[in-house]
Task: structure prediction
Amino acid sequence: MKIIDTTTYFEEKLMMNLRFNILNSYVDNFTVCEARFTHSGKKKDINFRKTDYPEFEHKITHLILDKEPADIIKKNKLNTNDLRFNSVARIRAQRNYLIEALKDYSPDDYIIYSDNDEIPNLEVFDFKKNKEKIILFKQKLFYYKFNLLMPNVDWYGSKCCKLKNLKSIDLLRAIKNKRYNIFRFDTLFSNLKHQSVNVINNGGWHFSNLKNIEELERKYLNDENHAEYEKLGHTINNIKLNVENRTIDYNHTAKKDSPKRFESSKLEIANLSLLPKFIKDDLNKFKDWIAH
Result:
């Protein structure tokens, strides 16, 4: 039985270094997919280099997606919904391309998918004892710094299953964050609702937006929500104020179609004991990413 960690990449060198170090003892292979275009459709250079991580280079598979998905909307003037649809299509294509590296693995090998800033805590989980088809890692959500916590929000970024139960990476990502009752017969016909689910508490960390101001602006202009970000008229000064005030312009408890979705939310300083051992063991090295 092997454990394959899969993720996508834009330009998150810090986060990948963390990911490799935190997961190395538990993972047999790291598979990273990078596209030659951003989620907003702009052409980009290939930024990931295995040689940047010499200690882990032998365990890394780097895939490059050259073509945009066939189903993106192409017309002269795209509205916000069109732009979001295209972003989601590009993200889905990049995630699903990871399957190209999984063809030679055993049906009983485990596949983990996370965005690269979502790191599962594999110290608390024994794959050999698992009896369920789907594994969900319930994670803490942090912004800007390792210890700036979004309170009262559980994040289910890392999800896992055996290769024989994997229909696509994107469907694995989209699985509902709960275990459904055995009397929910709709689960028999759903790719997203499952009864055989193992929810791992203390399941890891989502270190969102651990970037400098310029990197954050570049991310916001190119990620899934880039059209909404531009429509709201945000500027680099808005980003600076949010980082200084320890706020985000997003309400994680609001529904996606709610007008409250982009309300400001306040972050809290968390106890450093919540962080991965790799960070706690060398806090001085990461001092610029610790809030006081």
